[in-house]
Amino acid sequence: MESTSKPGRVQVSLATHEVIKNDFNFEDGSLMECKGLDKILTHLPVSKNKFFINPR
Questions:
Q1: Residue 30 neighbours by CB under 8 Å, 6+ apart
Q2: Using CA atoms, how far apart are residues 56 and 45, in angstroms rounded to an integer?
Q3: pLDDT tens figures, 10-52
Q4: DSSP secondary structure, 20-54, as one string
Q5: Which one, out of 5, 33, 35, 55, has a CA that is 20 to 30 A from the CA of 12?
Q6: In terms of C-beta density within 10 A (0-12 exposed, 13-18 middle, 19 or more buried), how is residue 48 classed?
């Protein structure tokens, strides 16, 4: 996914988004063609969610 990311940005898959969605604020990405995965919906973390207390 790194090779298809916007310059200076990190994009994450839906599966990763589900795991960290309470820790970060996200901007919706787009359908990206990823090697070996076909087209997948991506999300772009934009900032840490400072109001969430992680119980892990």
A1: 41, 42
A2: 20
A3: 888 888 999 998 889 998 878 888 777 788 888 898 888 776 5
A4: HTTTEEEEEEEEEEETTTEEEEEEEEEEE-TT---
A5: 55
A6: exposed
